Amino acid sequence: MESTESSYVSSPEGPRKHASPPHQSPSLEDSGEKPTYVRFLVSNSAAGSVIGKGGSTITDFQSQSGARIQLSRNHEFFPGTTDRIIMVSGGINEILRAVELILSKLLSELQSEDENDAEPKTKVRLIVPNGSCGGIIGKGGATIRSFIEESQAGIKISPQDNNYYGLNDRLVTLTGTLDEQMRAVDLIVSKLSEDPHYSQSMNSPFSYPVAPAPYNAVNYRPNGAAGGKFQNSKEDRSNSLTIGVADGHIGLVVGRGGRNIMDISQASGARIKISDRGDYISGTTDRKVTITGSQRAIRTAESMILQKVAYASERVLE
């Protein structure tokens, strides 16, 4: 079986420098004494700019920060997304420096496309083990409220996703300017580093498979004996599901040149067909999205499509 280490594209471990970091964490001892980590999502296209030509950018960022930066491979996505995973490990100040370098790089590319003087509010999605989310939320939500107030970033914790067998992680979405996001990352990582269970899982950062089929950690036999998620022999037969997606959101599901829908189809193993404009689900203005494949492929594709729709809805609300 492939080791966790080999599931990353990562450049050699950078030297542990103790440079003066831009963000001092109030509750920290010497940064080198308490190794921890943070994981966050990055799109497949953005991952290329983080790696750089021949790994030059990621090597430079490691050298500047003293942190180790690892990246999942180009077909290894966080379940229910087509996003890859970056893991940054080291002392907290080293981690903060590396995260800031990465986010600054992605932001500069975004601004060069936009040509807008105002600093955009962007989103960063951190991956946090479900068992560690309570520490971020705090009693009656007190901790997360104080983090929002102190950082001025929007902080949302996703509900537990039960669609994926063995997925014990949740997404923590930070919305704001780079400075606001960095203050929030500082507060969250400092809090997580106090949780012994969080630090222990640094050695096995994936408690779920990151290969294209999110269920491949379980060997489903025809009688469904393993895992028990699908208890019948229809699992590998071709099934079909039709869901409705608002006409205005179809573009985001399809993506430029059909890229998003191809990614979803490839990652899930399902075939996806969208009805023509005007061909709506009866009584609605929702287009028909028909997903065909095994039950697990359908579940995966449906989740990924609905996530795209939810993201579109969020953007409209903002």
TrEMBL record:
Residue ranges annotated for the K Homology domain, each copy included: 34-107, 120-193, 237-310
Chain positions covered by the region annotation Disordered: 1-33
PROSITE patterns listed in its UniProt record: KH_TYPE_1
Database matches in InterPro entries: KH_dom, KH_dom_type_1, KH_dom_type_1_sf
UniProt keyword Cytoplasm present: no
Keyword Repeat belongs to the record: yes
Chain intervals with Polar residues compositional bias: 1-10
Keyword annotations: Repeat, RNA-binding
PANTHER family: KH DOMAIN CONTAINING RNA BINDING PROTEIN
Protein name as it appears in the record: Protein btr1
Originating organism: Stylosanthes scabra
Gene that produces this protein: BTR1_1
